[in-house]
Amino acid sequence: MKEKPSIIFVDDQNNILQGFRRSLRNLENVWNIHYSIGGKETLRIMETTPIDIIVSDTNMPGMRGTELLKEVQSLYPQTTRLVLSGGGSRSDDISILLRTSHQFFSKPFDIEKLKVTVDRLLALRDKVGDENLIKLIASISKLPCSPHIYDAFKKEREGSSADLEKMGDYIAQDPGLTAKMLQSLNSTYFGVNKAGIHPFKAAQSMGPGTINYLFDEDTHFHTIDSKHPNYAFLTKVYKQSLHCANLVEALATAENLPEPLKNIAYTTGMLGHIGSIILAYGMPEPYAKLTPASFKSLAAQAQAEKKSFGATHNAVGAYFLGLWGFPEAICDAVAYCQTPDKSPQQTLNLTTLLHVAQALIQADDLPTQKSHLNIPYLEKLGLGDNLQKWHDLDKNEIRSLPALKDWKFD
């Protein structure tokens, strides 16, 4: 029998904590629940009690929520850090919270939403399994960016007349910029979770002033040094991410997916290889030993990762995106795109299209592309006759896009 997850709720007002107790009484049989008045007491509890998830208010006297979460991030990186705020948080707090927290919840407190979120995160975490990987994933506050794209984005942002459309274009071409920008929108500062929207639309929603304010320093972003052991592999992954984003979006339109899925198709493709980036960048020497340049297929890559680290890049990516509050459809697509026949939903959806897109990108000719596809799965869904159409779409429309043809990494 698995141990019950341990969760601590932090607030400076006892009446609010008592309200939590009443609301959470029915969950005491599935969670080990702790309640704490303020940050200092919380840290004392965590010295002796392992905590899986912390849910903390931000506006507390003494040790502010931002200070507490920064300490928890440093001392207990494996702990999932959730922010509870009534809105109207100080702007400077938001910038700090984006570096120290995973997700934001608004008051009044939605217990059912929290339970769904916790159950989902724990399920994704279980797929990772390895404690060292869990610590690595949970400790991430920023992802590396392509040097060329980030330099162009930074120059535009710092210019005297920043062009919002250009900034949006740069954001939409890079997994690191995309992930951080969309996580930023999943906060009470903006009032609504927009973590799944197209990154270009994210920039339009945020506006140049807010982008400049929240990202006025490099603490939110960094680039990949050319001396990194997996530099060549990461260069390939970043270009494939841009290719995949455009292709998944085009496939979603061609197959007439429901509008909510079309809206997040581009982001799904862009972040489909986020686990590869986390492993290759975050574990440079161990990952280099896998000789990633010699991977013959994504299946071979996943097999090598599983053998060496106990989890694949798909499991790592899905857990990371779940922590950062991305929609379930995106997390599922990333988790199951290499094993779509094991997906809980056996229908034409983003998992199917991410599987197809990643396979098409592996080669130029259809016969080789087919070798990367789960043909029985596609035939079961009645999609076997679509392969030529998908191949032609990629070859004739996507690969000729200026963003791909003119793409640079450094």
Which features does this protein show?
410 residues, Rossmann fold, Hypothetical protein af1432, 23 helices
CATH superfamily of the largest domain: Hypothetical protein af1432
Question: SSE order, as H and E?
Answer: EHEHEHEHEHHEHHHHEHHHHHHHHHHHHH
Give the strand line-up of the largest sheet.
2-1-3-4-5
Taking all Cα atoms into account, the compactness measure Rg is 21 Å
Estimated helix fraction: 55-70%
General shape: globular
In the CATH scheme, the class of the largest domain would be Mainly Alpha
What is the CA-CA span between the terminal residues? 50 Å
* CATH structural fold name of the largest domain: Hypothetical protein af1432
Give a structural overview.
This protein has 410 residues and is an alpha/beta fold. The protein folds into 3 domains: 6-139, Response regulator (Rossmann fold); 144-222, no CATH class; 224-405, Hypothetical protein af1432. It is 58% helix and 8% strand. It has helices at 14-24, 38-48, 65-75, 91-100, 111-128, 131-139, 147-158, 164-171, 175-185, 199-214, 231-254, 259-263, 265-270, 274-282, 284-288, 298-309, 313-323, 328-336, 350-361, 366-371, 375-380, 387-398, 402-405; strands spanning 6-11, 32-37, 53-57, 80-85, 103-106, 144-145, 222-223. Helix 1 (14-24) links the parallel strand 1 and strand 2. Helix 5 packs antiparallel against helix 17 (313-323), helix 11 (231-254) crosses helix 22 and helix 14 (274-282) packs across helix 17 (313-323). The protein is globular and about 65 Å long. It starts with 5 loop residues before the first strand and ends in a 5-residue tail after the last helix.
